[in-house]
What does this fold into?
Amino acid sequence: MKLQATRKGLQLAELIRQEGVSHPDVIRVIAATPRDMFVPEGLKHKAYENNALPIGLGQTISQPFTVAQMTEQLLNAPFTINKVLEIGTGSGYQTAILAQLFPEVYSVERIKSLQFHAKRRMNQLDLHNVKMKHGDGWQGWSSKAPFDAIIVTAAASSLPEALIKQLSETGRLVIPVGENQQKLVLINKDSTALKTDEIGDVRFVPLVAGALA
Ligand code: SAH
It folds into this structure.
């Protein structure tokens, strides 16, 4: 069953369109995704504001504009994207957006309880084209590679080598890079080279290195 636009969803989508994301498919799925399901009980009244919100354990659900902006980078790829890998499932909001746009979505999260709740939300929304894993996103998901696109929703101190390796021969990586000063970076891979473009300034929680919490 396809998710239907709601009044609040449409208002949020309109806000995002005014901020500069225009791809009709992004606007459509933002309008149809119930963001209130992805935020804690006490913050539901803020779910349709264009802000990041705490989701517990020191993590945040990303700002809707940023989610839209990153998703648009995938939709604008000059090749077909079938398989997408997301690093940093968090609430699962970005995952749910991707699942409505691409045939196969994979998502890795290092905090088990966040992953558990995100998985439950995918089931509630009937989004069955998502596979989730508890693990370290710096390592990607090698057994499911290659991916046509990879989207990282936490800021990396440097480019994770494993993710570049796990891109398809023609593939696209969208990743925030940096610590205090973060840039959203778009990396295009083709059979001969990597091309890097900066898209803008962003603020994400860090992509934590090493062992699982
Ligand atoms: N897309 C999410 C963003 C959540 S914040 C949303 O909109 O809800 C970033 C997430 O990345 C957090 O849940 C955090 O636990 C996770 N994360 C941080 N470092 C990670 C790592 N090395 N591997 C996997 N997930 C990581």
Observations:
- The chain has one domain: 50-202.
- The pocket of S-adenosyl-L-homocysteine is lined by residues 59-62, 87-88, 90-91, 93-94, 108-111, 114, 136-138, 153-154, 205, 207-208 (CB under 6 Å).
- Residues 50-202 form a domain with the Rossmann fold fold (CATH 3.40.50.150).
